[in-house]
Write a structure and sequence with these properties.
mainly alpha; globular; two-stranded antiparallel ribbon; 12 helices; 3% strand; 289 residues; two-stranded antiparallel sheet
Length: 289
Amino acid sequence: MKKNIKKCFPLFMLPTFAAFCIGFIWPFLQGMYLSFCKFTIPKDAEFIGLDNYAKAIADPGFRYSFLYTAAFAVVSIVFINLFAFAIAYLLTQNIRGANLFRTVFFMPNLIGGIVLGYIWSMIFDGILKKYETFLLAETRYGFWGLVILMCWQQIGYMMIIYIAGLQSIPEDMIEAAKIDGASRWQTLVRITIPNVMSSFTICIFLTLTNSFKLFDQNLALTGGMPVKFTDAGTTVNTTEMLALNIYKTFYASAKTRGLAQAKAVMFFILVAVLALAQLRFTRNKEVQQ
């Protein structure tokens, strides 16, 4: 029976593989090619070499968005994983109503980013109104607004992953630590955290990629505003992240679509390199149970 299944394996894989090639591989390769072209629609693409990449690197708005996104990603990764692990640890200590709290913390992840952006913009403006200012008045307000929104949405999801990791730790290891006289802090640092490094690997990977790919929340909450002038006389949207910068470049003019495509390819390479480096680093810290 196993031999018959192996013989039919390519037949069952063919529809899925074909869909993957049509829906991902071909568009990806076409997008790579268009990044070297000047085009309005793909059929009118004219190959121009590395001009789009040169313009992308020289674009002050793109460089600023990269630095802004990197800072946002670092802060989000630290806060989300710190709070998610702390909440997961508390909810695995046999407290009353733990399942209810898990549900409540997870629920924000079910709300769409656009909706969250508009809701939180009203909340922040209502709070800042007391101080006679508003969300888009200063860059720092938009930055921390995005961080709070991202944390509120993502902490519950990462909490579930950490809970799964904490519950997979063998009980005999915890009991042995108690018998040896280890304090709760020593047990947490020496036993618990090393044994949930696989959960840290997954959560850091997800928060890293989600932070760099953030688009809909950025669009709804700040839209990249406010605007400031650079020394060269150009304007820069001070809360505009990479994904939103690429989106605005693409729809700014038919002449800038090749430039936007080049930015998208650079964006993909950046996120892929960072994600792979993070996976390699954190996997080396994992403990085999």
